[in-house]
Design goal:
The chain is α/β, with parallel strands linked by helices. It has five helices and five strands. It has a five-stranded parallel sheet with strand order 2-1-3-4-5, sandwiched between helices. Strand 3, helix 4 and strand 4 form a beta-alpha-beta unit. Helix 3 runs parallel beside helix 4. The longest helix has 21 residues. The chain is globular.
């Protein structure tokens, strides 16, 4: 099973920015956590991070061609206004889960709206970095069910 985790702007600054919101662990810790989860579940997980909207769109489109079976995405602030990322996600027919480290629904009003969630199969918010592991578990199930439905 081939999965992709995309992280948007400022996620690379984990452990540096707003520790009260995002915690003390840095981005390398998150990548190691994802790597360990992939090994435990015997799945291939590629990770990608960019502060650039266009690069994120390019990576979503690349996923269509490289046989990625599911996308887990934390669009960061793009969650709230990037119709371009929303359209890129809508264009790829594979399971997609939106992840947020903090509970966006308990934060500033502008963070309550996600333009990307409606084209995703689910959203996980407020579980800290563990949300990524929960998303991997859910994605494995979704991809497996999609495969069994084909048979």
């Amino acid at each position: 099973m081939k999965l992709l985790v995309i992280n948007g702007p400022n996620i690379n600054f984990l452990g540096i920015r707003e520790k009260g919101v995002y915690g003390n662990h840095d981005y390398e810790y998150l990548l190691q956590m994802i790597t360990e989860k992939a090994e435990k579940e015997s799945v291939e997980i590629s990770t990608f991070q960019s502060n650039s909207e266009g690069a994120i769109i390019d990576r979503i489109q690349q996923a269509y061609f490289d046989e990625t079976e599911g996308i887990i995405i934390n669009p960061g602030a793009y969650t709230h206004y990037s119709y371009a990322i929303r359209d890129a996600l809508a264009s790829v027919e594979m399971p997609k889960i939106e992840v947020h480290i903090s509970n966006i629904h308990k934060r500033e009003e502008f963070r309550h709206t996600s333009v990307t969630a409606p084209v995703c199969d689910g959203q996980i918010a407020g579980l800290g970095l563990y949300g990524y592991c929960a998303a991997v578990d859910a994605m494995i199930r979704m991809v497996s069910e999609k495969e069994s439905d084909k048979k």
